[in-house]
Amino acid sequence: MGKLKNGDDLAKYDLLILGTSTWYDGDLQDDWDSFMSHLKVADLRGKTVALFGLGDQESYGSDYVSGMRLIYDMVVEKGANVIGSWEDEGYSYESSASVMDGKFVGLALDEENQNELTDGRIETWCDQLETSLKVSA
C-alpha cells in the first residue's frame, strides 16, 4: 500500500483503490485536479481499480459523489478494469453523475448524514472487492 505522488507510481500496483470527495457542482477536490494530468498519460491496461467517493447527499444532493465519476471515466479511458460498484438504495439524493444502471461506480459514503452506516458499508464493500478479485484471479 502506498501514496501516489505521480503517474509513474501507478505502474507499481496491480490494484488501485482511489477515493475523492466532491466539491461544488460535482468537481474533484483540488489535489485530484493536479493528479488528473498524471492519469491522462498513464497506461492502466491490466490494472484493476476500485473507487470510493465522499459527499453530503442532503446539502449537495444534486451532485452527490459526482466527482467519483470523473475519475471513473478517466481510468476506464486509460484501460483499467473497474470493480466495486455499489447499489444506490438507502441514499437520499437528487442526482449523481456517479450512478450508472442504478449503481454508483464505486462506494458512496456520507459522513455528514449517514455516518452510522459508514463502517458497515466499508466492510461489505471490502468483502465485495475481495470476492471480485478472487473471481478475476
Q: For the report, how would you describe the main beta sheet?
A: 5 strands, mixed
Predict the CATH topology: Rossmann fold
Query: Can you tell me the CATH superfamily?
Result: Flavodoxin domain
* Estimated structural class: alpha/beta
Q: Quaternary state, please? A: single chain
The tally of strands reads 8
Helix content: 25-40%
Q: Which range does the strand content fall in?
A: 15-25%
Q: Write the element-wise H/E pattern from the N-terminal end onward.
A: EEHEHEEEEEH
Which CATH C-level class is it?
Answer: Alpha Beta
Number of domains: 1
CATH architecture: 3-Layer(aba) Sandwich
The low-confidence parts are: none
Distance between the termini: 19 Å
Gyration radius, rounded: 14 Å
- What's the number of helices? 3
Overall morphology:
globular
Overall average residue pLDDT: 91
Family: Belongs to the flavodoxin family.
Cofactor: FMN
Keywords: Electron transport, Flavoprotein, FMN, Transport
Protein name: Flavodoxin 1
